[in-house]
């Protein structure tokens, strides 16, 4: 299984010269299974970088949403697979904030926000409200867990049969989560075995967080603590704050690696093969 980071910036794009090394596009990642399964998690502006990884018009594509804030859905109307005639594209998410994924996308993709209603796109589009049972796509099994964020948000775990497992948790305010929600998330990361890779919101430093309390995001030391609690060996920090330039992110990464040697900040365009767990 492979994960490709199309966009790792939070809140809004930052196409500034001093923010390009880590990337300025907002959240979008592709997951490609060994059997050719194609998943897209979120559709921020980083989608444009992922086009080569979303497969051909004959490949089914499943698009998962963590939540519906604009930095995670802005590129849905321009998602190129929607323009492939007859291509099977499924949009899936649990019910978030009382809304289904179909409710949200029929509002977002159509007037007055977009000229073409989603029902007129050439692809064969389906909507799926995720329940407690896993979503099985070939050799990939997808589960979800609620996390603390205003309006509702879901983390996803993707396990590959005979391979590794990825947990993707953006837009999490760990400090605001209750103990029950924290325990549930750690169990989610550990069962049926510890995930191989944790992608976790680390928008702030510990020093920055008090002034940003309630904004819906975590610190990178909290991401380290979660990875340790869940016994996950690999960590990627995601949802970089838009006011963090490359020099700031370099300093954060140095501090992160000193604390967690197999942890780094995710970079736009990074292509990472997730190995199976050790025997």
Secondary-structure arrangement, i.e. CATH architecture: 4-Layer Sandwich
CATH class: Alpha Beta
Helix-and-strand structural type: alpha/beta
Measured between the Cα atoms of the first and last residue, the distance is: 18 Å
Give the ordered list of helices and strands: EEEEHEHEEEEEHEHEHEE
Strand numbers in spatial order across the main sheet: 6-5-4-3-2-1-14
Q: What's the domain count?
A: 1
**Number of alpha- plus pi-helical segments:** 5
Q: In percent terms, what proportion of residues is strand?
A: 25-35%
Largest sheet: 7 strands, mixed
Question: What's the gyration radius in Å?
Answer: 18 Å
Strands, count: 14
Q: Approximately how much helix is present in the residues?
A: 10-25%
Choose one word for the global shape.
globular
The CATH topology: Metallo-beta-lactamase, Chain A
Fourth-level CATH superfamily: Ribonuclease Z/Hydroxyacylglutathione hydrolase-like
What are the segments in which pLDDT stays under 50 over at least 5 consecutive residues? Answer: none
In round numbers, the mean pLDDT is 96
